[in-house]
Specification:
Layout (H helix, E strand, L loop, with lengths): L1 H12 L2 H4 L7 H133 L6 H17 L13
């Protein structure tokens, strides 16, 4: 409060310096301040703000471009995934078809091989039967000749005369074997009765 009374006393005393309002600044400083602020405003407006605007626009464009690129990459990835899934489904379908074709082909091959094996088996059996029949015929002919020779030898010994004449021997043997096959000759027990 003391200061207030002192200021009032000075104002009341009529001093010329005391009569000037203490709030008004010094005019040259005020003009210099306005000029400095104007120059600073002009520098900021012409140099700094455009550079900040350019940096802001570049950053916004980079962000928007990045977002657009990301969306585009995502769309491409989705399209590639869809394409891959479609190819995978086609490949699975084709694999199933190939598997079914292979099964059918394998069944056909098995059937053909079975038929070939049966035909080969039948051919081998037929060939074996023919060979057996030929060997049987050969054995019959050989046995007939042997039986004929033995019977002529036996008959020669019994009769006491030689029955080795070829034509006679063949006729006797053939007649004997024909009678034997016809069942007209019956075996006789030696030393016993005929049954």
């Amino acid at each position: 409060m003391l200061q207030l009374t002192g200021v009032r006393a000075l104002a009341a005393s009529g001093d010329s310096q005391a009569s000037a309002p203490p709030i008004l600044p010094y005019l040259p400083e005020l003009i210099f301040g306005f000029v400095a602020i104007g120059i600073l405003y002009w520098v900021v407006k012409t140099k700094v703000v455009p550079n900040l605007e350019k940096a802001y626009a570049a950053r916004a464009e980079a962000i928007e471009g990045g977002i657009a690129k990301a969306e585009k990459a995502q769309a491409e990835a989705k399209a590639a995934l869809d394409h891959y899934n479609a190819q995978l489904a086609d490949a699975r379908g084709e694999a199933n078809k190939i598997r079914e074709d292979a099964r059918a082909h394998a069944a056909q091959i098995v059937a053909e091989m079975r038929a070939q094996a049966q035909a080969e088996s039948a051919r081998i059996v037929e060939s074996a039967q023919k060979q057996i029949e030929a060997e049987r015929q050969q054995a019959v002919v050989s046995l007939r000749g042997e039986v004929g020779r033995l019977s002529t030898d036996l008959a020669s010994r019994i009769v006491g005369e030689s029955l080795h004449d070829e034509t006679r021997q063949k006729g006797i043997v053939e007649r004997f074997l024909a009678d034997l096959e016809a069942g007209e000759i019956r075996p006789v027990k030696v030393g016993g009765t005929d049954s």
